[in-house]
Specification:
Layout: E1 3-10, H1 16-29, E2 35-42, E3 48-50, H2 63-66, E4 71-78, E5 81-86, E6 94-98, E7 100-103, H3 114-122, H4 131-138, H5 140-149, E8 157-161, H6 162-167, H7 169-179, E9 183-187, E10 197-199, H8 205-213, E11 218-223, E12 228-237, E13 242-251, H9 259-262, E14 281-283, H10 290-306, E15 311-320, E16 326-332, H11 350-369, E17 374-376, E18 397-399
Parallel strand pairs: 1-2, 1-7
Antiparallel strand pairs: 2-3, 3-4, 4-5, 5-6, 8-11, 9-10, 9-11, 12-13, 12-15, 13-14, 15-16, 17-18
């Protein structure tokens, strides 16, 4: 019998369209001899839909007109398992049962631990990082604070809230100037290079900050690396073990890889498969020596463990080509296209990669079930006889 895999994508996020590309692409590569695919699309207004039509990327160019053919749904737990349940109509009937969830979402309101928290509260097995790892991976400020505590190399930076900038803009600018130009201004909790500005001179800093504030109330400003080389490495595993992919050298049209470099004009591969992150200009394997390759693989695994990540991620690195100094830029806990193109040169196909992700999800679920999460106790029975009837939970029996 096939395992039923719910693939969740979309969400109210500025990376909504990127998630659609990644989600549809993954569904095209999942082994359909082994798994039954259940697409679960979260629209920009946070309504959940399911239906086989959602596996066709062309649907999303005109979704408002076509959504009447999809089914509104919600994920629920019942005594005998997990189900997608119809939310429209007089009766909330079950649409299908689910065995495991594969989240392929990007950005705030989904990838940042929000979706992981929902799935944890329901109890269904799911692939990828749990709440803490997802949240740390999304917030570039807290992520850097964790890295600093673990002596993982990062560039110099400063950060602030939009309210800080509104009250004391000159102090914020002064802190940025201490870094020295050029700098990179970023929304602290977005990805896909959205809202990011490379600032060469002081005269442009205020405009860059105001643009970033349009996307987030928390802003980070980083010292730009001179003579920059951008390298990425994917990590697959959990806290017990990690595998690393080959390393890619990323080439953008500007001084940093932009959203347009990554996604615009991606089109489709032959056979209708979506390109996704394959549209970005890259060199695989990267043109680096074995010493740097070993160093990046080691740091990637350290970063993966430090942030409590699991499943699959992509760690992005910044390298000063003059000094050979390596810095961790940021993790992508659910990278575009799941970074499958970094695993193919190792002999692992995208189909095999997805199979390993699902296997890791089930393994974690079984491991967690063996832990104690609550107690069997009659402590509340004391309330029937008033507070005096309460005797604590001595002798409580552990319950999974």
């Amino acid at each position: 019998m096939k395992l039923k895999v719910g693939v969740i994508f979309g969400g109210e996020t500025v990376e909504h369209e990127v998630s659609i590309i990644s989600g549809v692409q993954a569904m095209e590569y999942i082994n359909q001899d082994k798994y039954e695919i259940i697409p679960i699309y979260i629209s920009k207004d946070r309504i959940w839909y399911t239906g086989k039509m959602l596996m066709d990327i062309d649907v999303y160019s005109n979704f408002n007109d076509l959504k009447k053919y999809a089914t509104k749904c919600m994920l629920v737990k019942k005594e005998d398992g997990f189900y997608l349940q119809k939310t429209s109509g007089l009766f909330r009937r079950n649409i299908t049962d689910l065995d495991v969830v594969l989240p392929i979402v990007h950005g705030n309101n989904v990838e940042d631990g929000t979706l992981a928290g929902l799935l944890d509260s329901i109890g269904i097995p799911y692939a990828g990082s749990e709440v803490l790892g997802s949240a740390l991976g999304q917030d570039k400020v807290v992520m850097k604070q964790v890295f600093s505590s673990m002596n993982i190399p990062i560039v110099d930076y400063t950060w602030f809230y939009d309210s800080d900038y509104a009250e004391t803009p000159d102090d914020i600018i002064s802190n940025i100037e201490k870094l020295g130009y050029p700098v990179i201004v970023k929304p602290a909790r977005l990805g896909s290079s959205i809202g990011i500005t490379y600032v060469k001179e002081a005269k442009d800093i205020r405009t860059a900050i105001e643009q970033a504030i349009e996307y987030d109330n928390k802003i980070i400003v980083e010292k730009a690396v001179a003579n920059l080389l951008e390298l990425n490495c994917s990590v697959l595993g959990n806290y017990e073990y990690q595998q690393v992919s080959v390393i890619e050298e990323v080439k953008g049209k500007t001084s940093l890889l932009t959203y347009e470099d990554k996604y615009i004009g991606s089109g489709k591969l032959k056979g209708g498969k979506s390109k996704g992150m394959l549209s970005a200009s890259r060199i695989i394997p990267a043109r680096i020596d074995s010493k740097m390759e070993e160093e990046i693989g080691k740091i990637a695994c350290e970063a993966f463990k430090a942030l409590n990540l699991s499943g699959l991620c992509r760690i992005d690195f910044l390298v000063d080509k003059d000094t050979k100094k390596v810095y961790v830029n940021e993790p992508n806990t659910i990278p575009g296209s799941l970074a499958f193109y970094l695993w193919e040169p190792t002999g692992k196909s995208y189909t095999e990669l997805l199979d390993e992700l699902i296997t890791l999800a089930i393994k974690r679920y079984k491991s967690n079930k063996r832990k104690i999460h609550s107690f069997e106790t009659n402590i509340l029975s004391g309330y029937a006889n008033g507070v005096k009837g309460m005797k604590g939970i001595k002798g409580a029996k552990g319950k999974n």
